[in-house]
Specification:
The chain is of the alpha/beta class and 272 residues long. The protein has one domain: Metallo-dependent phosphatases (Purple Acid Phosphatase, chain A, domain 2), CATH 3.60.21.10. The chain contains 5 helices and 14 strands. The strands form 3 sheets. It has a 7-stranded mixed sheet, with helices on one face. Helix 2 packs across helix 3. The protein starts with a strand and ends in a 15-residue tail after the last strand. The relative contact order is 0.19.
């Protein structure tokens, strides 16, 4: 299986920004659980501008839209076009792929493989149409296996929307990747994989599995309470993750959140 790839002209370390779960709507003042999601996204992107003077690419890891409308993806494009770097998009359980594709002009946002001198980023679809949980299809598993095998000389980061390991939250752990064991079998075959990265869970986590870094990232809007048995919203602010990928395979990363802004949240809602 072959696909288009994007080459980043970067010979040293690679600086990536991950934003996830933007949950944009057709109206500009559309909201999730009371929070105006375009406003919160713009607050996060303003923070990126303040804190990250040099970045090489932006990863947007699913649930870009809440309502699946073409206009919601246009809002995202407008916000990200202000950055002089490419952005690469993944679908989440709330996304409409046809609407995403219509907004993908000039056609780079849905590229699946991004490579630099020392690293590659592989973007994998975990969406199951009409379902909240995720699954990696056999064709996606084959694509991942072949892509990783093609360049064993490159340190590799693999990203998708849904989580492949338990987060310690009963309700969240029912809606992760249902065949995560098959995904991890592929990862285990390739010793140059350094990191798995996802969204979906609206919270920060940092784990290790067999020397592979496992990372989840806060939403640019509402956060979910870690360790909760049932659906629960956290009080933490929207945020993003930065990643610095070094030529020798080391990875530095951190999460930064918006400060000094009060975001309205409806804590009475028991689902999203």
């Amino acid at each position: 299986m072959r696909c288009r790839l994007y080459t980043l002209q970067q010979s040293g370390s690679l600086k990536l920004i991950q934003i996830t779960d933007t949950h944009l709507n057709e109206p500009e003042d559309g909201h999730l659980l009371g929070m105006k999601t375009l406003h919160s996204l713009n607050c996060v992107l303003d923070l990126v501008r303040q804190e990250q003077p040099h970045i090489d690419a932006i990863l947007v890891t699913g649930d870009l839209s809440q309502d699946g409308s073409p206009r919601s993806y246009q809002h995202l494009r407008t916000a990200l076009d202000a950055f002089p770097v490419p952005s690469f998009w993944l679908a989440g359980n709330h996304d409409e792929r046809s609407a995403m594709q219509s907004a993908d002009i000039p056609g780079d946002h849905l590229i699946r493989v991004v490579r630099s001198a020392h690293w590659q980023v592989v973007l994998i679809n975990s969406q199951v149409a009409g379902k909240v949980y995720g699954r990696i299809s056999q064709s996606e598993l084959d694509f991942l296996d072949q892509t990783l095998a093609e360049r064993p000389d490159l340190h590799s980061l693999v990203t998708f929307h849904h989580h492949p390991v338990d987060m310690g939250s009963r309700w969240i752990d029912t809606i992760g990747i249902r065949n995560a064991d098959q995904l991890l079998e592929v990862i285990d075959r390739h010793s140059h994989v350094r990191c798995l990265l996802w969204g979906h869970v609206h919270q920060e986590s940092d784990q290790d599995r067999n020397g592979v870094r496992l990372l989840s990232t806060p939403s640019t809007c509402v956060q979910f309470a870690p360790g909760s048995e049932d659906f629960a919203v956290d009080t933490l602010a929207p945020g993003y993750r930065w990643l610095e990928l070094h030529a020798d395979g080391r990875l530095d990363t951190g999460v930064s959140r918006v400060e000094g802004i009060d975001f309205e949240i409806d804590y009475s809602v028991k689902g999203y």
